[in-house]
Amino acid sequence: MTGPLPERGEASVPSLETAREFSGNLLILLAGLAAIGTLSTNIILPSFASMASDIGVPARELGLLLSSFFAAFAVGQLLVGPLSDRYGRQPLVVLGLLVFIAGSLWCSRADNMNELILGRVIQALGVCAASVLSRAIARDLFDGEVLARALALTMVAMAAAPGFSPLLGGALEQALGWRANFLVVAVLGAILIPLYLSGAGETLPPSRRGHKALASAAPGYLRLLLDQRFLLPALAVSLVIGGLYGFFAAAPAILMGRLGLSALQLGGFFAATVFVVFAAGLLAPRFARRFGVVKVGLAGTLVALISGLSLLPAIADGLIPFSLAITLFLFGMGLINPLGTALTLHPFPDRAGLASALLGCLQMSCAAAMTALASALPLPPVTALGTILATTSALAMAAFLLYRNRGAAS
Predict the structure, then answer these.
(1) Are 88 and 393 contacting, i.e. CB atoms less than 8 angstroms apart?
(2) DSSP 8-state assignment for residue 5
(3) N or C: which terminus of the chain has fewer CB atoms within 10 Å of its end residue's CB?
């Protein structure tokens, strides 16, 4: 075995040998599959005002377009995982993207709130397959350090999509109207289908498929939840992802309502955050090789915790202090996400679809909860965000500590 020895409580990391070459084209494909779900959510945020006006509802009610999407996304993944372990990845990815395209086209023609919510549910039920199976495909193809690299870069794309999509959505809304946002994501979904078929195709051979995957799905999920090797790193990743979505939910009220940024400047702020996540994602595997996966994950939670605590006493009451605090959180999150995901999936190569689905469900559940808390907490927006980031980071740190101290990988 090459590479660093695992720490106590850290998953054993095999050598760099992989089943397929780690290529740029494959990376782009995995990134696209991972990112399209988050892109299709945040791209509509700048259009809420015009959407509300056109369909005749208060703008605040459009939050249902987010919560309904997250709920369907979370539940759908629980079905996608065992189906892909039984029938392979390819049928689920292609069918899921086709369903996503149909939901996007439905939304582009919707005339009322009920039609929009239905379209968003259809979108989510389709696109959840691409998102959850991007991780399973990476686990099918790679192992050890290369798996960590692949997940790091694809998770960067998944985290970066919410940063760029509001800027794209704002430009589309201004030029063509809010319906163009749904048409654009439908086109992107259509582009991904031939890219997937030519660039990856089926990655789960019949010999590795679980022929009883459907019947064993519920007990399989229960076994994963009771397995500390899965549960502890999965909770750490899901909590920080929840914090990320809490930030996206709270940022408009803070940056536009309190600090006076325009809609275009808000989109630019989101876009700038991408580079922080990208840098952290690139550094995470390098740090992990030198210091160990769990130590780097703990360091990421500490950085994120400091960010949340700095927001509580309103120290970050200004654009520059607030930006610095958010930069800290995003850097910490960028370390935790890929490494925690690799730890979560690595022990379960024969249940990669099931494990990835449950991880995705946990992430989307935390995203839904933190998004709701961002607007429900009876606190000023900055303090509410600080509370969310500090709490999720502290709980993620506790999960990593339990993983290390209880020897979850042993």
Answers:
(1) no
(2) P
(3) N
| Rounded-to-integer distance, Cα 295 and Cα 299, Å | 6
pLDDT in tens, 116-130: 999 999 999 999 888
| Nearest-angstrom CA–CA distance, 304 and 286 | 19
Q: How many residues in the chain?
A: 410
Dihedral of alpha carbons 227, 232, 237, 242, sign: positive
Euclidean distance between CA atoms 394 and 200, whole angstroms: 38
Q: How far is CA 359 from the centre of its chain?
A: 10
Extract the tokens encoding 347.
Answer: 């022990």
User: Around 156, how many Cα atoms within 13 Å sit in the side-chain half-sphere?
Assistant: 21
**Distance from C-alpha of 342 to C-alpha of 50, rounded to nearest angstrom:** 41
Residue 407 tokens read as 């020897």
Encoded tokens for 179: 């319906």
pTM of the model: 0.75
Q: How far is CA 200 from the centre of its chain?
A: 21
pLDDT of residue 315: 55
pLDDT in tens, 224-253: 999 888 999 999 999 998 998 888 777 777
